[in-house]
Design goal:
Blueprint lengths: L5 E6 L7 H14 L4 E5 L7 H5 L8 H5 L10 E3 L2 E4 L16 H6 L7 E5 L6 H9 L2 E6 L3 H14 L6 E9 L8 H8 L3 E6 L2 H8 L4 H4 L4 H14 L7 H16 L10 H8 L4
Parallel strand pairs: 1-5, 1-6, 2-4, 2-5, 6-7, 7-8
Antiparallel strand pairs: 3-4
Helix pairs in contact: 1-10
This protein binds adenosine-5'-diphosphate and magnesium ion.
Magnesium ion binds next to helix 1.
């Protein structure tokens, strides 16, 4: 692996917030900006990426690499312009897997890669920690609610023991309803910059059922635009936000004024901290 390769771990405290969705679509969006990308399923106990991608005809897995059965360089599978290393869905392939070897395997990569995207298991167990350890950068995925945002504070404490890492945060399944925490509040509470906002978009669920990432299934959907914006930011290129996205956000704001929600989340960081995060 070359020094310039950006190894990014996609991390969250809670499962189901959208890590695998973000990992898959961010990898594909980076490819749209001509980046060389490797996507690795590091969620060994509950791997979902191959299903989400609709990838079936692979031969080797990360399990084989970690078991020393195959070399990482010969185990990569081409998928729509990116490189992909799946995890085995067979439970027996977990036996004897040594995750601590992963960092060394990454260093052996010969391909000229701009980005390596690691889809992690949730939480702070061994299976999430090896990804945090191997990553140079961390992207936290969270939904805009207190418990999941609180998880990030916990994850950050653990990360502090693994050396200096660049951190960013993606808010997923955002509807801009008033019961959600505001992006600015989340940024202040966690101390991590928000680098992306992905709208709640039913097309994402449809795409999963159809076994194709949203970026391919509905490239113009709100969620796809969110992923393109994120990839542009990471690639340091300009990306003009489509008018319909700006309009969508504006309509939400107007709706919140005209038809106020019965549940409203405190708008200031101080209030949120006092009410909900006093234990952190
Ligand atoms: N922005 C979104 N809008 C709607 N549904 C989403 C969105 N992001 C993810 N999902 C759905 O939420 C579920 C969990 O997502 P997933 O990426 O598997 O989370 P994780 O990897 O963190 O467990 C999936 O069914 C996925 O299709
Ligand atoms: Mg996942």
């Amino acid at each position: 692996m070359i020094e310039m390769t950006r190894v990014i771990g996609i991390i969250s405290g809670k499962g189901g917030v959208g890590k695998s969705t973000v990992a898959a679509n961010l990898a594909l969006a980076l490819r749209k900006f001509k980046k060389n990308v490797l996507l690795i399923d590091c969620n060994l106990s509950t791997p979902h990426l191959s299903y989400y991608l609709g990838a079936t005809d692979y031969k080797s897995t990360i399990n084989d690499v970690l078991l020393g059965k195959t070399d990482i360089n010969t185990s990569l599978y081409p998928y729509n312009g990116i490189n992909y290393l799946p995890a085995s869905v067979k439970f027996e392939d977990l036996v004897g897997v040594e995750v601590t070897k992963f960092k060394k395997d990454l260093l052996k990569l010969k391909k000229n890669l701009d980005f390596v995207i690691l889809d992690a298991a949730p939480g702070l167990g061994k299976e999430a920690l090896f990804v945090m350890d191997a990553s140079k950068e961390i992207i936290f995925v969270t939904t805009p609610f207190v418990p999941m945002v609180g998880d990030i504070i916990r994850c950050k404490e653990v990360l502090g023991q693994l050396g200096e890492k660049k951190m960013g945060l993606v808010l997923n399944m955002v509807t801009h309803d008033t019961h959600e925490l505001k992006s600015e509040v989340i940024e202040e509470i966690t101390g991590v910059p928000v680098m992306g906002e992905i709208f709640y978009d039913k097309n994402v669920v449809h795409s999963m059922v159809m076994r194709a990432p949203i970026l391919q299934y509905r490239p113009k959907s709100m969620a796809s635009v969110g992923f393109m914006k994120m990839a542009a930011l990471l690639s340091e290129v300009n990306y003009e936000t489509p008018m319909r996205m700006k309009l969508h956000k504006l309509l939400r704001t107007i709706r919140n004024v005209v038809v106020p929600s019965p549940v409203i989340m405190p708008q200031s960081t101080e209030e949120v901290k006092k009410d909900f995060l006093s234990n952190f």
